[in-house]
Structure formats: C-alpha cells, structure tokens
Amino acid sequence: MPPLFDLHVHTANSPDASLSEGELAERASAAGLGGVEFVAHLDLNPADACCGFFREERYRNAVREAGLRHPEITVLCGVEVGEPHLYGAVAAEILRGHGYDFVTGALHWVDDLLVLDPGAFRREDPLRLVERYYMTTLKMLERPSFDVLAHMGIFRRGMAMAGLDTSLDETALWPDLLQDVLGRLIEKDVILELNTAGLRRLEGVTYPSPPVLALYRSMGGRLVTLGSDTHGEPWVFYGLSEGCNLLVEHGFKHCYYLRSGEPSSYPIDGAPGSDAAGGNRMDL
H helices of the chain, where? Predict the structure, then answer.
C-alpha cells in the first residue's frame, strides 16, 4: 500500500483532543504516512463545547514548528468549521489572510440537536432526524465556503449510543435526497472525506457508509480524502488502511490532499500519480 495522507487529525489546539502537533507529526513519520493535515475546531455555535477555543496564532505556530521538525513528511494546516451554512461568513473573516491549506465543513448540529448526542435521537423520531441531517447537508452545499465535506453520516455515532440500529441504508430510504446531496457535492467540486472514526465506535462503519460511497462513485464522484478523525490515544491514525481498501473496492484509484487550497492526488491502487486534481466531474 502506498504512503497515505491523513486529512483529519486534531491536536491539543482543539479542546477535545490531547496530543501536540509535534507528537503527531513524529507518529505520522514513524507510521510511514506520506503526510498529515491537521485540523482545529472552529465552532461558533454558542451551544457547542468547542465554541470560543480556537486560537489562530498558537495553532498555526505549532503546525509550522511540527513541519520544520519533520521535513520527511508533508505537514499541512487546516480548519474544521462547524455548521458553515450558518457561521461560514464569520469563520471566513476570522481565517481571512492566514493562508490555511484547506477548510473542512462539518455538520454536528441540526437546529438545536447535536447528532453526536444520543439524547437527540430520543427527542425526535430517529429517521426524521437523519432525513433532516441530509436536508441540512444539502443546504450547506448551496454556496460552500469549504473545500472538504467532513464525516457525512456521523449521526450514526449518536444513534449507536442511543442503542438504535445504525444499519439503515439512506440511499434506499431517501434516494432522491441522497442523489441531490451527492450531485451538488460533485457540481461544486467539494471533496468527500471518507472518515474512519466510526470503525472504532459502536456503529463499526465509515462516514459515509459504503452504500453512500458506492452511490457517489456511480454518479461520477472521484474526489475523496482519507481522515482518521484522530483526537488522541489509543486511536491515532486508526482505520486508514481499511478506509483505503474500501475506496479501492469501490473503484477509486486516487486519494487527495490539499495545499494552499489546491488538491493533489496520490495513487492508492497502482495508478500513476498526478499533480493536478482536475474536477469532480472528470472521471478516471
């Protein structure tokens, strides 16, 4: 397997993570990764536990220092913006002029319900909440202010913790809605993240799930990143190989990483590498 890039790694500059940028860069090098792209939570919803924690200068300096100490791997700097359809403009002002390598958009809240919280699925009919999650994702993609769509399907975390069955196939339950979401993702050239954090949780599945990934590929989608959603021990870079194998099984030949907002590909199935990403609509 070629060296992989982990595009979703949180550090102690996020309040829910524990390891430093330097520690993680050293671990990435030892693990044989091609690169690591850090993300810091930028959450502006007052109800979110991460709201108000982001310290731009401290974070960027820590990433820069980690990159200088580990030139043998690619170390890049990103931000995870929560609910960009609501807070994207304010986030853009905070980030303006600072030259981040990429911005990932994340949906944790549907109105006042945190989908990572099992309580959300007790307050509202579970399937209705999942449907509204995808309707909100579609709204996020109307005028996206981000490069990568993070962990689509993370609601399964809250469902599993609530003791609910997470094996639902949303592509069968809401086929038109899922096609609209993925079609807009492709149209806007937003990159789909395959997030492997669910493999270490009760739900035991990636975000998005394999049926959603299969639909995306069948519609011509090809821009994908791998992300472990690392927050600390013992799950550092967990699931990347399994995620890569899942992508290959679904016909993907390349993964992507971003530098200064520009995606570049690397081969995951013996395909020749490429510097230029092209667009989501240009199939391989």
Answer: 21-30, 56-69, 84-95, 120-123, 126-140, 155-161, 170-173, 175-187, 210-218, 240-249
